[in-house]
């Protein structure tokens, strides 16, 4: 695999442009609302681009790829598609309810219904979830495959560029770069798809060479894993970056329209990525006719030993012509930078607005909040770097972060939003803290006591003769959060009586 100087030049020009946007907005912020929420003035087109760009980072791009390469169309039917239902719920029900109050963050909501203690648990949870670990993991992968770097160098260089324009430009820079990145994503996928399909001989070759299970909507994937992967879509209902965009929009109507349009774009994008990964798998099963074979050995078009989450990059590098490859790689960088910048900004806001202001300096000025947010952005990047180094595969990292968010915030937020009688301080606090602690403890335990299974690509520990996968943690932690909530209600009733 080789990349031309022209392709490298395209990538460098793109990266330089993103940094330039950040510096352009560096001194254009009137107050904290302007820095963190773009002055609550985002229109439907900007919401569409920033929503889609944020949620379609490398974690989705290569997470979907990993499943599609190993199991086929189940990556779309069993993993990606269920999330669209959660987006629809968010568009039609959740967003309208959230717009009724002038919140700025997820912890704002928790404080409104349950008090300050629950706010701080929510701030910690949101901060952990928003660590850009997935993005940095992806940058490490990109640096390794595209540039031949060690993964850590890719994290430092590529992730560092996104860090610079996020720290300097705030949410206006994030929204504008997301718009540019959205256009790049759509353009490069549309251009690259026919090249990749032609490279492996088209759909007919795929149907001929791939096992029949690859075209089964549920495939051969473990049913429990399918349920877990689909369940991670619940995170959309308590997603800090999603909430940020609800609060930054001009109106509920803008959010609703952006999400409904976004569902169709997400679905199309996911489907194309699924097919491309299956095409890469096909390439491992057909001979490379450009190689002279004198011994009768079978030399495949694509190395069968490639890591599944690298299959999309591999087929693109092999199939795309000079210039188009550079655009594609710049587009891939776009998807990840648009995710990293959004999550770092939310994490920085958790430090400044949700912890520093209420707990340390209630009279903090807008300038102080912006400064502290920038420190928080840097802190989240550093911690995210550490988490990315620890995990061995992307889907496991995604499930870990999603399980923390879901287990500690889903129950108190949804019950607090819609059931007035459940808004008891102890209920929210016990639910949040028990969900957070149990998720972190169980994941650490499984990674220390268990073994990493190469075939399942996850940590496994044996409990009572049963193999318990790391991804199954939510089966335990979500019920713990529910039980904690109702224990809090019972305690509150006894205290009242």
How would you describe what is shown here?
This protein is mainly α and 497 residues long. It folds into two domains: 5-390, Up-down Bundle (Sodium/glucose cotransporter), CATH 1.20.1730; 395-497, no CATH class. 74% of the residues lie in helices and 3% in strands. The protein has helices spanning 5-24, 32-37, 44-55, 58-71, 74-98, 106-114, 116-129, 133-147, 151-199, 202-209, 223-231, 240-248, 252-283, 311-319, 324-360, 366-390, 394-418, 425-449, 474-496, and strands spanning 451-453, 458-463, 466-469. A hairpin with a 4-residue loop joins strand 1 and strand 2 (458-463). Helix 3 crosses helix 15 and helix 7 (116-129) packs parallel to helix 18 (425-449). The longest helix has 49 residues, at 151-199. The chain is globular and about 80 Å long. The chain starts with a helix and ends with a helix. The model has no long low-confidence stretch (mean pLDDT 83).
Number of domains: 2
Under CATH, the topology of the largest domain can be stated as Sodium/glucose cotransporter
**Biggest sheet architecture:** 3 strands, antiparallel
Silhouette = globular
Enumerate the spans where pLDDT stays under 50 for 5 or more consecutive residues. none
């Amino acid at each position: 695999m080789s990349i031309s100087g022209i392709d490298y030049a395209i990538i460098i020009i793109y990266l330089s442009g993103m940094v330039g946007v950040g510096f352009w907005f560096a001194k254009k912020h009137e107050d904290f609302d302007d820095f963190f929420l773009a002055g609550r003035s985002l229109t439907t087109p900007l919401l569409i681009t920033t929503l889609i760009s944020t949620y379609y980072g490398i974690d989705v791009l290569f997470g979907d790829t990993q499943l599609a390469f190993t199991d086929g169309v189940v990556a779309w039917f069993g993993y990606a598609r269920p999330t669209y239902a959660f987006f629809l719920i968010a568009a039609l029900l959740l967003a309208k309810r959230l717009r009724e109050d002038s919140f700025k963050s997820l912890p704002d909501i928790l404080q409104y219904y349950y008090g300050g203690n629950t706010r701080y648990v929510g701030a910690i949870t949101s901060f952990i979830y928003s660590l850009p670990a997935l993005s940095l993991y992806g940058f490490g992968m990109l640096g390794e495959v595209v540039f031949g770097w060690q993964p850590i160098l890719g994290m430092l260089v590529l992730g560092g560029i996104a860090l610079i324009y996020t720290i300097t430009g705030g949410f206006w820079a994030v929204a504008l770069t997301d718009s540019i990145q959205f256009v790049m994503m759509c353009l490069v996928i549309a251009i690259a798809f026919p090249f990749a399909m032609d490279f492996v001989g088209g759909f007919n070759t795929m149907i001929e060479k791939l096992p029949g299970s690859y075209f089964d909507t549920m495939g051969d994937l473990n049913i429990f894993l399918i349920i877990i992967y689909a369940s991670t879509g619940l995170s959309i209902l308590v997603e800090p970056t999603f909430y940020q965009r609800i609060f930054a929009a001009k109106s509920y109507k803008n959010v609703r329209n952006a999400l409904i349009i976004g569902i169709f774009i997400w679905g199309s994008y996911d489907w194309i990525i699924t097919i491309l990964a299956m095409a890469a798998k096909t390439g491992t099963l057909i001979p490379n006719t450009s190689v002279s074979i004198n011994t009768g050995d079978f030399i495949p078009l694509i190395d069968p030993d490639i890591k599944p989450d690298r299959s999309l990059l591999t087929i693109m590098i092999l199939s795309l012509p000079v210039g188009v490859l550079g655009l594609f790689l710049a587009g891939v960088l776009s998807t990840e930078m648009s995710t990293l910048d959004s999550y770092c900004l939310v994490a920085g806001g958790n430090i400044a607005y949700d912890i520093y202001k209420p707990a340390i300096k209630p009279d903090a000025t807008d300038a102080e909040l912006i400064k502290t947010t920038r420190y928080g952005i840097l802190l989240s990047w550093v911690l995210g770097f550490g988490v990315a180094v620890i995990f061995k595969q992307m889907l496991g990292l995604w499930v870990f972060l999603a399980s923390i968010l879901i287990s500690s915030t889903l129950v108190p937020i949804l019950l607090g939003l819609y059931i007035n009688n459940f808004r008891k301080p102890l209920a929210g606090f016990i639910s949040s803290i028990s969900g957070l602690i149990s998720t972190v403890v169980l994941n650490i335990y499984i990674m220390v006591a268990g073994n990493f299974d190469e075939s399942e690509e996850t940590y496994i520990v044996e409990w009572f003769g049963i193999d318990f996968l790391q991804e199954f943690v939510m089966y335990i932690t979500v019920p713990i959060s529910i039980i904690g909530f109702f224990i809090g209600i019972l305690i509150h009733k006894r205290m009242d009586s």
